[in-house]
């Protein structure tokens, strides 16, 4: 049965579906902000608690990875930022961008049967007619050290939910998509966000308590980059090609070049080569 059109988001509608212990315990929903990441970063610096979540119906200056703009039309998609804190600085922090990708895929799979995968590090893709189209982008920003070595990160997630193809700019229509475009019907956003927060909490608890081994396995099973011949477009300038062989202990991409050298890539755009 086709679900009814989605309704506006509110703290009440989200909490009605939420089963987390901490993520979303402090939750604010805004009609419009410049950037949920910017707003939550300010709240974090003012002492916001672990698990604080900021949601907006629209953003006027949404951002993706590497400073790119993220289209954020009103009432169609999910724009949410989540604050995670740790008692001490930890190498596990480098896994947060990959953790967020796994959580996003699992949340989507909870409500759809779409073949959703991840391109390293955290682009969420769906394959159609042999082409990969982007459903979601994730921007993780570290806020640095505070008292007693405390660390905090803000996870910003933009997930295209009910955005029609005509709402994408012309240059994105061949590379971006939404859940409703792919599935052929709209989705209720509140239960989807609740599922996302539950997956984030579960994976974050596992990472903090048991390390990254299980997360690394889960990520590798979802990552379509691994095993592919790829081109890496480096931040700033330069590019290189090779085979994506696996992940380093900190989640970096291990690239084997044509000369047989193994490089560890921690920032850059990945292009899957056919």
Low-confidence stretches: none
Main sheet summary: 7 strands, mixed
Task: Give a count of the beta strands, DSSP E runs of length 2 or more.
Answer: 12
CATH class of the largest domain: Alpha Beta
Structure description:
- The protein is an alpha+beta fold.
- It has two domains: 11-222, BirA Bifunctional Protein, domain 2; 229-272, SH3 type barrels, CATH 2.30.30.
- Helices cover 25% and strands 28% of the residues.
- The strands form two sheets. It has a seven-stranded mixed beta sheet, sandwiched between helices. It has a five-stranded antiparallel beta sheet with strand order 11-10-9-8-12, with no helix packed on it.
- Helix 3 crosses helix 5 (189-210).
- The longest helix is centred in the last third of the chain and has 22 residues, at 189-210.
- The chain is globular.
- The mean pLDDT is 88.
Characteristics of this structure?
globular, alpha+beta, 274 residues, SH3 type barrels, 2 domains, five-stranded antiparallel sheet, 6 helices, 12 strands, single chain, seven-stranded mixed sheet, BirA Bifunctional Protein, domain 2
